[in-house]
Design goal:
Elements: H1 5-12, H2 23-38, E1 49-51, H3 62-71, H4 83-96, E2 103-106, H5 110-120, E3 127-131, H6 136-143, E4 148-152, H7 161-167, E5 173-177, H8 189-202, E6 207-211, H9 227-232, E7 236-241, E8 254-258, H10 260-269, H11 277-288, H12 290-313, E9 325-329, H13 334-343, E10 346-348, E11 359-363, H14 367-381
Parallel strand pairs: 1-10, 3-4, 3-5, 5-6, 6-7
Antiparallel strand pairs: 2-8, 7-8, 9-11
Helix pairs in contact: 1-12, 3-11, 4-11, 5-6, 5-10, 7-8, 12-14
Bound molecules: pyridoxal-5'-phosphate (PLP).
Amino acid sequence: MKITRRGFVETVGLGTAAGVLSDTSFFGRQANAQTRVESQSGVYDGGIMQLNQNESARGPGPKTMEALHSHITKRVGRGYSPDHVRELQQAIANYYGIETGNVLLGTGSTPLLQGSARAFCSADKPIVAAAPTYATSMQTARRIGAEVKEVKVDSKGSIDLNGMAEAAHGAGLVYFCNPNNPTGTVHGRQAVDGFVRRVMRESPGTIVHMDEAYINYADPGAMETALPLALEFENVFVTRSFSKAHGIAGLRVGYALGQEQTLDVIRNAWGMGDINMLGAIAAITALEDKEHIEWERKENAEIRAFTIAAFRNMGYEVADCHTNHIFVNVRRPASEFRAACLEQKILVGRDFPPMHNTHCRISLGSREEMEKAVQVFQQILA
Ligand SMILES: Cc1ncc(COP(=O)(O)O)c(C=O)c1O
């Protein structure tokens, strides 16, 4: 069954009665969406729908694509000139109204996660994190012999801030993913502020890392960046990624924001890689294209609401997600659900212990992909 635009809107509960979208505005946006999607056909290979990693299903926006095309010239033979990389650092600083010293670039945010675990954890300096959460920092900490203290999320998939603050006593690093991967849950300004100040007060030697890779997908008003806290406290820093809403995962650009001396410690602990000139140009354009990011947020939010509604209509619980992925209680091991989806040529998320026996993370594809995927999920879970 093909889900029509009307069906999509009704499932999501955004009918015209609510006045949210008229058909005219939808077709206007749809045409726009088509133009944006067109240039990335061929991204998804082998006929397998990739709902297993949280990259943007739509790739870069049109301005970013244009900037990339116009910079593929013989000039790439002169790649050692760091012009565009410095420009990117400056563009990020301007964007937030901070100094370039408050910005540390990485080839994706991954080296920043690895570097910070190496910088702040050791055999007697544990890392504290929610369980489940994004694993890179903990994997690095384990590799260097640091203890990993995991604090299970609550029954709604939300990070237990009280438990995290208690576990933080004497820790080297607290990793706080907001919104959280895989659960998609978010903490607002007051909660984050209270948590950070409590850790700073009760465990002054502990560093708090706020990973905001998915911030651009959060509903308006649901959260704010922790950048003001990172500028206030030497022991707080934020990381961001261009791999999600900005749609350039394959170009590998991310950054950390914080006090210069804190970022220096991270930079000295681990290589951050070299950003290439195309990555830098794409990142500058994507960062400054606020209109596209807003379009991407709204597009993802509609697709997310449609997909969540489909699961809830079948009686399956889904966490309140603010990301481009959802975390579903499929009431069976994720491995079982994954295998059934793969038989239908859909890849869904890996195991996320300790919830892997009940929950599966599903990354959100394009509108068209999720219409197809929902039919497969309905067949499997019926
Ligand atoms: C929460 C979170 N942080 C960081 C990353 C790393 O992304 P990248 O290295 O592409 O910036 C990811 C990737 O999925 C993520 O989910």
